[in-house]
């Protein structure tokens, strides 16, 4: 065989098998899945075709600000994006897009994909239905059992139970709840349970790096971690038992020691009485703090009060200043750059900026405006969360084993340069010659589009309604994407 013919055959094979070659094969018991923000124009390109429609959506009428993971459900696989939520416990798909207001809302809902059980040869439709209630709206689902693959990997879980929506109210996407599962909040195995039960992971633990605003995506590793996504050493924070937690539900509650601000002057100011239980919630865009504390922080950003929509308007200049908000836990301080806290959006009146913090008297919730600056391992096996400062210096993935001491695991990265203007949590996005971070400007086409801010208030300020009782594993509190899962049936 001639050399030219050999080269030609190799090129043909690569071309035909390109998708196969991109599949990540696992040699260990962990599974990596990209986490994509709703502002990522490459993934959700159809959503941004009509910029005017996006720009003119009323401020308090959007609820689709979130991070998404892609699943392949059924046989043959049907791709569906679901909101990644550490605050709920169940997977469901197929929101009702026809009842949404605004063309951009409908386009986003339609862009996430749709699962049809009748088109899957491996689906089993159950007769059980249930209503999951959220901060705004709800999802009435019928349970289905089918195979679920994690996109981009060779992981395929068999006979996974999840919900298929019969109807939804004010829901823009399905939700992948990755909180506690079987016999704790629900009566069947959720995704975390199934990953361990079917041998994809050897532990009920996963690591989460949401990535900065400029990166627009992060990574979740079920059963593993990436030491090139944080600096310093992971510090172990015990999960507060449900009986001692503010809402009495098994969630990712830990104790925060204090909260401070370090302005550009470098003189750190500690806010008084900030030792409290906090809840880590990837399904919430905003961070919820007690009103007195939220007002104090807002005042340091020049905001006297919230506006009519419940947001603190701030000057966009803070996006270019090197200050930080400092969340202290045992053994570690997570420093959140101003630019990660300040939310800028395009409106018909131009770019407007808001503080990514909202007042609440119910309980403290650390949402994406804080979590983007943290690297966290959610460890159900050992009832702990191991956290460190987020910093992106590449990729170095490792399996989480029973013998591993997570609380002494060191990161590969240098700490971010918080003293620099445009301080960021990801050194790679600042200037690496690849164009990464180019979407992080403040022009009308920046990554901080309407999706970055519109709507969280609508979900995050409704906390008063009680759903069910403790026998239903329900709670008087609701987060952005929570199924505070009113259990109407035992499965």
Automatic annotation (TrEMBL):
Gene Ontology BP terms: proteolysis
Region (Disordered) residue spans: 417-447
Keyword field: Aspartyl protease, Hydrolase, Protease, Signal
Protein name: Peptidase A1 domain-containing protein
Chain ranges of the Peptidase A1 domain: 67-388
UniProt-listed PROSITE patterns: PEPTIDASE_A1 (PS51767)
UniProt superkingdom: Eukaryota
Native source organism of the sequence: Xylaria multiplex
Alphabetical list of InterPro entries matching this protein: Aspartic_peptidase_A1, PEPTIDASE_A1, Peptidase_aspartic_dom_sf, SAP-like
Similarity comment: family membership: Belongs to the peptidase A1 family.
UniProt keyword annotation of Transferase present: no
Signal sequence residues: 1-17
One MF annotation (Gene Ontology) recorded for this entry: aspartic-type endopeptidase activity
Gene3D superfamilies membership: Acid Proteases
Any Pfam family matching the protein: Asp
Residues the record marks as active site: 85, 281
């Amino acid at each position: 065989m001639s050399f030219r013919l050999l080269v030609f055959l190799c090129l043909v094979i690569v071309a035909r098998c390109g998708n196969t070659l991109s599949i990540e094969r696992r040699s260990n018991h962990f599974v990596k899945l990209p986490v994509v923000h709703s502002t990522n124009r490459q993934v959700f390109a159809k959503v941004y075709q009509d910029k005017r429609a996006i720009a003119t959506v009323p401020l308090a009428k959007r609820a689709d600000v979130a991070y998404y993971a892609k699943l392949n459900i059924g046989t043959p696989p049907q791709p569906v994006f679901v909101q990644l939520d550490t605050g709920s416990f169940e997977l469901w798909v197929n929101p009702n897009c026809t009842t949404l207001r605004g063309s951009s809302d409908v386009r986003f809902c339609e862009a996430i994909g749709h699962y049809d059980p009748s088109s899957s040869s491996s689906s089993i439709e159950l007769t059980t239905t249930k209503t999951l209630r959220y901060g705004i709206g709800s999802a009435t689902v019928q349970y289905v059992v089918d195979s679920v693959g994690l996109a981009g990997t060779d992981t395929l879980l068999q006979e996974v139970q999840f919900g298929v929506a019969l109807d939804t109210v004010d829901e823009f996407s399905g939700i992948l709840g990755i909180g506690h599962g079987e016999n704790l909040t629900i009566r069947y195995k959720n995704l975390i349970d199934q990953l361990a039960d079917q041998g994809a992971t050897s532990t009920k633990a996963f690591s989460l790096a949401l990535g900065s605003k400029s990166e627009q995506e992060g990574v979740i590793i079920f059963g593993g971690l990436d030491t090139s996504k944080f600096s310093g050493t992971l510090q172990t924070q015990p999960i507060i038992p449900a009986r001692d937690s503010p809402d009495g539900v098994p969630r990712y509650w830990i104790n925060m020691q204090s909260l401070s601000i370090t302005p550009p002057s470098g003189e750190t100011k500690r806010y008084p009485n900030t030792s409290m239980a906090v809840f880590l919630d990837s399904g919430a865009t905003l961070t919820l703090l007690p009103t007195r504390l939220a007002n104090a922080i807002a005042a340091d950003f020049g905001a006297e009060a919230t506006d009519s929509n419940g947001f603190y308007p701030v000057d966009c200049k803070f996006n270019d200043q090197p200050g930080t908000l400092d969340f202290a836990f045992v053994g570690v301080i997570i420093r959140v750059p101003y630019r990660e806290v300040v939310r800028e959006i395009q409106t018909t009146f131009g770019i407007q900026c808001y503080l990514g913090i909202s007042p609440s008297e119910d309980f403290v919730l650390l949402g994406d405006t804080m979590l983007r600056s943290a690297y966290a391992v959610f460890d159900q096996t050992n009832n702990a969360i191991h956290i460190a400062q987020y910093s992106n210096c590449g990729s170095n993935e490792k399996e989480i084993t029973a013998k591993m001491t997570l609380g002494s695991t060191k990161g590969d990265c240098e700490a971010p340069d918080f003293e620099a203007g445009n301080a960021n949590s990801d050194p790679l996005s600042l200037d690496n010659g690849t164009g990464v971070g180019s979407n992080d400007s403040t022009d009308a086409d920046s990554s901080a589009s309407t999706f970055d801010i519109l709507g969280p208030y609508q979900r995050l300020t409704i906390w008063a309604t009680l759903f069910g009782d403790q026998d239903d594993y329900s709670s008087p509190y609701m987060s952005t994407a929570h199924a505070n899962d009113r259990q109407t049936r035992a499965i």
